[in-house]
């Protein structure tokens, strides 16, 4: 999918004139403040504005978008994922499959870590073993839980035996390889195009070319400048102290940059925005109640007025470009009358003040995320559901989500490549900490299909299985599907080499440079 520039239309005019005037005044004052401070020294040849710090720089531990961005610079895996969402050998030179459960991998020679050590099969075995055995607590364990044993017959050969066939096994081998014995608390050491030179938490991550990298990065140094406030991120772009921002500018500001000649790259996105529901808490433990909530959210209005049409309605976890996508599961219509009928039939009539029941909705302090939460809460209030919004600092918010401490929350899945991702998010065997089924959704029928899809290597049969899964999930609504956000990158005019992936990941960054 090739990126393309696209000029944007005018901004939507809100009736909340006074609030917009105050917001504009605040931006103006902040602009004056920044312009009077002088330009700060550059930390690197290429400076990228980002919203937040990574939770961890160990590829086995970090599970947030900020961490994934750093991983794209620091590490290489046995496999990577191609534009068609299928696994492609990376560190692996060739591989064979003597039986449905046996794999032999031949690794490329001459690959070195950033400290000069050669990467061998022993390092790959250590990385995979540390995850699958639980020696390192990792969200990746579900990707590797079918491994029975790993052997290293020679420095460049890796033998893996599975407990049972696993069609998605190769896709799970995209985890970054670390040196044997490496612990998560240690400074990152990988074989990627860059190595980390400094990390000033909450402010900067600075990278320089890995001198041992096989492919030379275009920019000698790259820095991630952490700018939590979206208004300030935009102002930093306007000042020129930031060279590019990927998926971290509010939709309102994109029109300004397009109108003023900044290169803007846009591609239909593969990420999936959703509202997660706690399926273990009444009344959300009932599918008809969850379906009612999904019918009451006006996605089209939110996409148009808040996201400025930089998204398309989602039907489920997989985007339309994915080989296993099935459109029969959606998109979910906006049907508040049907939602009310479902709640009435479920024995949840309106009570005092017209309220049927109450729930809390947790979100981060991100401005757009808060706006989405408010819009969704207003929609749900119209069908008698009183939503209390809790806007939390990112670490607190994400910790609550990972623990399952929520009624509802808003997040986006990034980087779902193989449809086995359904198993890690919706199987009853994938409750935390061993999986990502944070809402504790459980369905024996879905469990059976997910196991069938995970074992069968035939692509067409897998596609049929996952079509059934997508339809069942649409019926049971453990998530409220929202949209697939467009991937959008804004750069300074002297930046070249941008080839934006569908999910906006930073795999393209080693090709980017300033003229």
Provide a descriptive summary of the structure in words.
- The chain has 515 residues and is an alpha+beta fold.
- The chain has three domains: 4-66 and 192-267 and 487-514, 3-Layer(aba) Sandwich (D-Maltodextrin-Binding Protein, domain 2), CATH 3.40.190; 76-174, Alpha-Beta Complex (Dipeptide-binding Protein, domain 1); 272-485, Dipeptide-binding Protein, Domain 3 (Dipeptide-binding Protein, domain 3).
- The chain is 30% helix and 22% strand.
- It has helices at 17-35, 65-74, 121-132, 141-144, 230-239, 251-259, 287-296, 299-305, 336-345, 367-381, 394-403, 421-426, 444-455, 459-476; strands spanning 4-5, 46-50, 79-81, 87-89, 92-99, 102-107, 147-154, 157-162, 194-200, 204-209, 221-226, 244-246, 264-267, 272-277, 311-313, 357-364, 385-392, 408-413, 479-485, 487-491, 495-496, 513-514.
**End-to-end span in angstroms?**
25 Å
Number of domains: 3
CATH C-level class of the largest domain: Alpha Beta
Structural class: alpha+beta
CATH architecture of the largest domain: Roll
**Tally of extended strands?**
22
Strand order of the largest sheet: 1-13-20-12-2-11-10-9
Radius of gyration: 23 Å
Range of helix content: 25-40%
Low-confidence stretches: 1-38
Beta percentage is: 15-25%
Q: Would you give the CATH topology of the largest domain?
A: Dipeptide-binding Protein, domain 3
Q: Look at the structure and name the CATH superfamily of the largest domain.
A: Dipeptide-binding Protein, Domain 3
Mean pLDDT, nearest integer? 90
Q: What's the main sheet like?
A: 8 strands, mixed
Number of alpha- plus pi-helical segments? 14
The general outline is globular
């Amino acid at each position: 999918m090739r990126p393309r520039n696209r000029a944007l239309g005018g901004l939507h005019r809100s009736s909340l004139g006074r609030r917009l005037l105050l917001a504009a005044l605040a931006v103006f004052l902040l602009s004056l403040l920044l312009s009077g401070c002088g330009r700060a020294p550059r930390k690197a040849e290429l400076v990228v504005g980002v919203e937040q710090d990574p939770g961890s720089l160990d590829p086995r531990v970090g599970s947030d978008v900020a961490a994934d961005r750093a991983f794209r610079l620091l590490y290489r895996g046995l496999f990577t994922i191609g534009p068609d969402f299928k696994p492609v050998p990376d560190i692996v030179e060739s591989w064979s499959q003597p039986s449905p459960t046996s794999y032999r991998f031949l690794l490329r020679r001459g690959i070195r870590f950033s400290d000069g050590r050669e990467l061998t099969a022993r390092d790959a075995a250590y990385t995979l073993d540390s995850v699958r055995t639980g020696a390192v607590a990792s969200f990746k364990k579900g990707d590797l839980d079918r491994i029975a044993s790993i052997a290293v017959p020679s420095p460049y050969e890796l033998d893996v035996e599975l407990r049972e066939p696993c069609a998605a096994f190769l896709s799970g081998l995209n985890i970054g390889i670390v040196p044997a014995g490496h612990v998560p608390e240690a400074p990152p050491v990988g074989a990627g195009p860059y190595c980390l030179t400094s990390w000033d938490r909450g402010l900067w991550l600075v990278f320089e070319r890995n001198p041992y990298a096989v492919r030379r990065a275009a920019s000698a140094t790259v820095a991630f400048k952490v700018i939590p406030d979206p208004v300030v991120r935009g102002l930093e772009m306007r000042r020129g102290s930031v060279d590019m921002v990927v998926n971290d500018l509010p939709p309102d500001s994109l029109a300004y940059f397009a109108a003023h000649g900044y290169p803007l790259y846009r591609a239909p996105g593969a990420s999936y925005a959703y509202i997660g529901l706690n399926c273990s808490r009444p009344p959300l433990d009932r599918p008809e109640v969850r379906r009612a909530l999904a019918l009451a959210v006006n996605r089209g209005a939110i996409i148009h007025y808040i996201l400025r049409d930089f998204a398309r309605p989602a039907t489920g976890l997989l985007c339309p470009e994915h080989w296993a996508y099935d459109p029969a599961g959606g998109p979910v219509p906006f049907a508040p009358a049907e939602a009310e009928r479902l709640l009435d039939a479920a024995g949840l009539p309106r009570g005092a003040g017209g309220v049927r029941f109450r729930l809390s909705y947790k979100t981060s302090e991100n401005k757009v995320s808060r706006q989405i939460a408010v819009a969704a809460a207003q929609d749900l209030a119209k069908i008698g559901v009183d939503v209390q919004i809790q806007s939390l600092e990112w670490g607190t918010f994400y910790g609550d989500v990972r623990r399952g401490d929520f009624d509802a929350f808003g997040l986006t899945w990034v980087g779902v490549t193989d449809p086995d991702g359904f198993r890690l998010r919706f199987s009853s065997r994938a409750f935390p900490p061993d999986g990502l089924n944070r809402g504790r959704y459980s369905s024996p029928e879905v469990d059976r299909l997910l196991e069938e899809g995970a074992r069968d290597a035939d692509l067409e049969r897998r596609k049929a299985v996952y079509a059934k899964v997508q339809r069942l999930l649409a019926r049971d609504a453990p998530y409220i599907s929202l949209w697939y956000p467009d991937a959008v990158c804004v750069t300074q005019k002297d930046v070249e080499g941008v080839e934006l992936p569908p999910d906006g990941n930073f795999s393209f960054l080693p090709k980017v440079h300033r003229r």
